[in-house]
Amino acid sequence: MQGLEDEHKDVKQYMSEKRAWLMSLGYRVWGVMGSQWSSFAGCPLPKRTFKLPNSIYYVA
């Protein structure tokens, strides 16, 4: 769940910051699942991505 400080961030920035935060805690990000390509963008990059279909909406 996003906090108030994350309200105006775009998806790429938010997701990459959360991956970096998890890695700073010692976790390894091996894979990321998402329905939008923007979920995978930004650094640090995951080792593997899994794009899931979402017929309800698409964010360009």
SSE blueprint and pairings:
Layout: H1 11-24, E1 31-34, E2 48-51
Parallel strand pairs: 1-2
Count of distinct strands: 2
How would you sum up the major sheet?
A: 2 strands, parallel
Q: How helix-rich are the residues, as a percent range?
A: 10-25%
Q: What spatial form do the alpha-carbon principal axes imply?
A: globular
Rg from alpha-carbon coordinates: 12 Å
Q: How many domains make up the coordinates?
A: 1
Which strand order do you get reading across the main beta sheet? 1-2
Separate helix tally:
1
Q: Low-confidence stretches at least 5 residues in length (pLDDT < 50)?
A: none
Helix and strand run: HEE
**Oligomer type:** single chain
| Approximate strand percentage | 5-15%
- Mean pLDDT, rounded to whole units? 81
First-to-last CA distance: 22 Å
Pfam families: Acid_phosphat_B
Architecture overview:
The chain is an alpha+beta fold and 60 residues long. The chain has one domain (9-51). 23% of the residues lie in helices and 13% in strands. It has one helix and two strands; from the N terminus they run αββ. The longest helix is centred in the first third of the chain and has 14 residues, at 11-24. The protein starts with 10 loop residues before the first helix and ends in a 9-residue tail after the last strand. The mean pLDDT is 81. It holds the Pfam family Acid_phosphat_B.
